[in-house]
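Priority: medium. Attachment 1 of 2:
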């Protein structure tokens, strides 16, 4: 995969997605001028001797304590060491790589006062696969993601651990092995590195990209479930959705029509089915999935803006040699976006589980009980549906908004916080849960369609079903079910199900 060029302030959502999926990172050389100008402005501010927060004062509640020039380097090192107070399991390497890239793009805008050497080290660590070990817990999403970013900064000064090629090593040793020198922090640099929303934003973007794949796969499995139940595609008629005007709903209905176009199973329903209306889990797919898509797009717009902003404090303005204290580190926009993503992920999984429940119930689907040719002797899909229900319920519990919570910190200096890190960190796990639900639906829907042979579905859905069947055969008699579920979930997570269908499906853009 080629390197992704970062032009600070102008990075697209597509670019961040590429980095999440493993692209390298290269900073646009045009940022060299603003970086140097910002560092020079800090030097002039220090030379003036007036107290400026974060440069020659203490931090937070200790901002009134003036620090002498001889102690400025120690001040910056101390804030990194003292704030590296995270706990819990290490964050996933791809999340921290994305966090580092976000921090690089922020610092390179020339408003943070860091030196070119600091930028160069961060870029080199990304290039050489040196990822700081960052505990996942410890941020409340205001005053920045202090603890997680401090662990990153600590690794840059040779303290803590770095993961490289799958191995955890002492940071100093890993840097030395990569022919890199630990950073000597100058005035303001420690604070600039550990202040900001990059940990919350990286987790939120990761959840967003997972939700996008989940959404598209659920359109495919939803269409396949409609076929398995010999449901109608009339509710997907574009005229219905044009009257309501929601973009996501219109596009979701169009996608479902495209996926089912030309289906012989659908044609058979027109001839001999006496049902007038299908259950909501089939009929209202455009309304539910479309609303989820609209919410995901709104979250994407917020996160793209956040990713291109500068969120540390204070901010340096070289044209006037000022360092202005504000509150850009408060991650409320990220918290709201994460909450919306969580709601969308929860609902995508929820309606999918209802389709699974419908398919295993012969009174609703018209199919053999629990989708097995010999119910009673075999349990078929009885317990996979229970597993899907368990996962959906777990996601419901996790979907409670994090942004409505707050707890004062730092002796009430930081008296309102966003909890963006909490809201963002749950998203990958929620997406994993919902992905497993979609995987179970894929198995159930394909099994349901098997009962309609020799009738076949559309070209797109038959291609998707064939892709599954290459890994998982039809379930005739009960067998060890777990490997089937794992294989189907992997197909959903990888994006290969959507690729196999070959239909252009709506996404984030």
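Attachment 2 of 2:
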């Amino acid at each position: 995969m080629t390197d992704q060029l970062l032009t600070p302030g102008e990075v697209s959502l597509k670019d961040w997605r590429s980095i999440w999926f493993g692209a390298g990172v290269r900073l646009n050389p045009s940022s060299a001028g603003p970086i140097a100008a910002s560092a020079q402005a800090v030097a002039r501010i220090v030379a003036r001797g007036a107290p400026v927060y974060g440069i020659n004062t203490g931090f937070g509640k200790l901002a009134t304590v003036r620090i002498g020039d001889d102690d400025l380097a120690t001040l910056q090192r101390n804030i990194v060491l003292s704030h590296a107070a995270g706990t819990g399991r290490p964050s996933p390497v791809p999340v921290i790589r994305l966090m580092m890239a976000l921090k690089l793009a922020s610092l390179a805008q020339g408003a943070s006062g860091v030196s070119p050497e600091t930028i160069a080290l961060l870029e080199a660590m990304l290039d050489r696969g040196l990822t700081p070990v960052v505990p996942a817990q410890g941020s409340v999403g205001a005053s920045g993601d202090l603890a997680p970013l401090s662990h990153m900064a600590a690794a840059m000064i040779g303290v803590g651990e770095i993961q490289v090629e799958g191995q955890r090593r002492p940071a100093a040793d890993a840097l030395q092995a990569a022919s890199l020198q630990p950073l000597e922090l100058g005035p303001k640099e420690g604070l600039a590195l550990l202040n900001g929303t990059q940990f919350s934003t990286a987790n939120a973007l990761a959840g967003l990209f997972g939700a996008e794949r989940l959404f598209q796969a659920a359109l495919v499995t939803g269409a396949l479930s409609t076929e398995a139940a010999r449901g109608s595609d009339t509710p997907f008629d574009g005229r219905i959705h044009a009257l309501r005007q929601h973009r996501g709903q219109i596009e979701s209905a169009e996608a479902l029509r495209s996926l089912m176009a030309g289906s012989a199973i659908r044609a058979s329903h027109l001839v001999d089915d006496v049902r007038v209306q299908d259950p909501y889990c089939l009929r209202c797919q455009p309304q539910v999935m479309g609303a989820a898509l609209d919410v995901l797009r709104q979250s994407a717009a917020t996160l793209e803006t956040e990713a291109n902003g500068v969120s540390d404090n204070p901010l340096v303005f070289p044209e006037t040699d000022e360092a202005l204290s504000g509150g850009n580190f408060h991650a409320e926009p990220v918290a709201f976006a994460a909450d919306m993503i969580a709601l969308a992920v929860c609902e995508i999984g929820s309606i999918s589980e209802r389709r699974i429940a419908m398919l295993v119930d012969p009174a609703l689907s018209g199919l053999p009980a629990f989708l097995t040719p010999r119910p009673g002797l075999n349990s078929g899909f009885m317990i996979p549906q229970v597993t899907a229900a368990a996962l959906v319920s777990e996601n419901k519990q996790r979907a409670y908004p994090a942004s409505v919570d707050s707890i004062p910190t730092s002796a009430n200096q930081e008296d309102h916080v966003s909890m963006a890190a909490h809201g963002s960190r749950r998203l990958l796990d929620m997406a994993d849960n919902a992905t497993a639900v979609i995987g179970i639906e894929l198995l159930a829907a394909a099994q349901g369609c098997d009962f309609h042979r020799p009738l076949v579905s559309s070209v797109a859905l038959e291609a998707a079903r064939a892709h599954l069947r290459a890994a998982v055969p039809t379930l005739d008699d009960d067998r060890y079910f777990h490997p089937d579920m794992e294989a189907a979930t992997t197909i959903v997570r990888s994006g290969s199900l959507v690729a196999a269908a070959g239909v252009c499906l709506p996404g984030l853009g």
